[in-house]
Amino acid sequence: MKRENEIGFVVRRLSNLIKRDVESSKLRLDIDPVRGVNGWAIGYFYDNRDKDIFQKDFENKFSIRPSTASKILKTMEQKGFIERQSVESDARLKKIVLTEKAIEIHKNVIKEINAREKRLRSGIAESDLKIFFSVMERLTANMEDSND
């Protein structure tokens, strides 16, 4: 079998191309300080900006220990991505609020993600995409089953 017809090879190649595009986007948008969990956290806080989110919520959402959450949030605060604000009902509680800087970064990242997704889907029929996602789910399940 040719390597070009091996699923793992093809998936890895596409993954590399997407990763390269993501890295290029970071440089273009000048968002290098947003790495790993910071990006996911900004997305979580952005999606829940209409609610009061506390450290405990963050810990539960990302299944992390309080010490890990505290370290991440402290770093995000130092980078100017979040602020902790007191709530009226209990001055001891501090809700987590995104700064304008983080909101702007998030909006730019979403634009890049949408543009990348549009390029990836270019010239592919919806029916083919439906098959693709079905096959990817099955491939994922196959790999999960083999890791039990």
Topology summary:
Blueprint: H1 7-29, H2 36-47, H3 55-62, H4 66-78, E1 82-87, E2 90-98, H5 100-121, H6 126-146
Task: Describe, in short, the structure shown.
This protein is 67% helix and 10% strand.
Describe, in plain words, how this protein is organized in 3D.
The chain is mainly α and 148 residues long. It has a single domain, classed as Arc Repressor Mutant, subunit A. The chain is built from six helices and two strands; from the N terminus they run H-H-H-H-E-E-H-H. A two-stranded antiparallel ribbon has the order 1-2. Helix 1 runs antiparallel to helix 5 and helix 3 packs across helix 4. It is elongated. It starts with 6 loop residues before the first helix and ends with a helix. The model has no long low-confidence stretch (mean pLDDT 89).
Report the C-alpha radius of gyration, rounded. Answer: 19 Å
> Structural class of the helices, strands and pairings?
mainly alpha
CATH superfamily: Winged helix-like DNA-binding domain superfamily/Winged helix DNA-binding domain
> Helical content, roughly?
55-70%
Properties at a glance:
single chain, 148 residues, mainly alpha, Arc Repressor Mutant, subunit A, two-stranded antiparallel sheet
